[in-house]
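User: My advisor asked me to double-check a structure prediction for Ig-like domain-containing protein before group meeting. I don't want to rely on an old file, so could you generate it fresh from this sequence?
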Amino acid sequence: MVLFLLFNPQPSCGLKIFSSTVSPTYAAAGGNVTLSCHFNLAPQDTGVIDIEWSIKPTDVNLPETLVIWYAANRIFDNYEVFGSRVQFVSSSPATGNASISISHLKMTDTNTYQCKVRKLPGIQSHIIHMDVMERPTEPECYVEGVVELDCEVVFRCRSSRGSSPVWYRWSMDGTVAPGTLVCTAQNLVGMKSCLVAVSLKNSAVVAISTAVVWLTVFIIIIITALIVFRYKRRKIETFGNEILDDQLPPPCVSVCQRVSACVSVCQPVSACVSLCQLCQRVSACVSVCQPVSVCERERAACSRSTDRATSSSRFTPPSSHLKVGTS
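Assistant: Sure, here is a fresh prediction for Ig-like domain-containing protein from the sequence you gave:
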């Protein structure tokens, strides 16, 4: 059988020590913390006061690590563990306030701290365990699926960093915006929140909205197709009319053709002359008509042919005479 006896120093002449800091206490990494340690002295405590803060190891066989020390009206700090990050709250700790503050906390500052006050012949101490934790980062929150009546949806919320345990809490916050859900991630040293906008959608409304969208797209396609078809048709008709106009000879061309026909059959001069006069007028505006000189030459040729025909008609052949002799 092994018997463990724990001896705590007891005040001999009225020395009392107390603290407002609960143990364990929790602090956020990067922040500051105050470890409280106060004491009261009695008139019969005549010894020299000595105040010491140290780190108590979990193994009782290991020595304590000095953090800060007050003795002979002097403060001894800047030890290797904390350097200038630790200091007494009061500039005169001997008056009864031996509390210390630690700044720029690190995760490695998690330890068990001891405040020890000596006032011979009495000694008193107080132990505080401090746990340095990381605050939760701003969580990412979102909704999976469409929020509809009589449908199950899943809201997700998670912080990427933060010391355990981390609790998550959902709440409705109408002060931010109507229908806004708030997710809060919280641990022992801090909290962060994110927002999710929730808009309730009815299945029938969603179906009607979808149908209207598709109908609008279909109408736009039909209208576009009609416009393109009419444009192409008009272009084809215009091109066909141009071809037909090119194929039809101008009126004056038929006149020139009549002149040539007149000359070839050698119509009366009056007819040819009238046609040639018409050809002269047409040739002034139509390049395909025969030049005036051609008309003149054809008229002259026609005139000569007519003159020869007229001369031949006036010639009287000799008549035969029967000469009768008289006997």
